[in-house]
Amino acid sequence: METTRTALITGASAGMGLAAAELFARRGWHVYAGARRVERMTELAALGVRVLTLDVTNSESNQAFVNTALTEQGRIDVLINNAGYGEYGPVEDIAMDRVRAQFAVNFFGAVELTKLVLPTMRGQASGRVVHISSIGGDLYTPLGAFYHATKAALQQFSDTLDAEVRRFGVRSVVVQPGGTQSEWAQVALATAKRNTALDSVYRPLVEAVDRLLSGRTASATSADLAKVFYRAAVAERPKRRYLNSVGDRLVVWTARALPNLYRSGMHQGIKRLAK
Length: 275
Description:
It contains ten helices and seven strands. The protein is of the alpha/beta class. The chain has one domain (6-274): Rossmann fold. The N and C termini lie far apart (66 Å).
């Protein structure tokens, strides 16, 4: 009899995390969905998803999340490190406590949860850790320095981890979403405004970026990205990176392979925005 697989998904109260938890549950997995806002996961609970309060910046919370799944299922097949946000704003204006908070959520939380599940995965001789980065792990835009830094760190962490644990039957991979129909961009821009005083020399840039992005809509949905999460979780021969669209692949390739061209285009864009 085939064992029902168990997935742990963080940041599951909205967007891609919520859509992924629903998809895994509908495909017959035991799903443990963690987030701070459990009241937003009632629909998941109705599907049979185990909904748990999770603050990835708190070690006790992380330990309880993993221990609950182990106690109830005895195994962990997939961990999806999806929790994250964008502490946007000019480098000079963002307070250091906010910089530390950005790394605590986007990077250190994922690291700790990964370390907690690895002994179990090694003991099973199987397991997959899926880190949700961003195309912003390879490229950069104004106001996103610390967000981009966390995603670049997460990608290097994943590659190094994969080299260490592959011989135990465990794999570590990265999903890099691009623009997605969610509340993420609006929240990031609101954060940029909070982080930038009205009399800051960078305020015109913040306002210009807000005007530029507020009129744009992404074509990819959270459901689209949930399918990418699933492919990354179950592929027999997993890739290092998973991207959703040709456009995402093209911009990442340009940033990696033609960094001077990308930088030139970025600087020209900043000049136009700042006028």
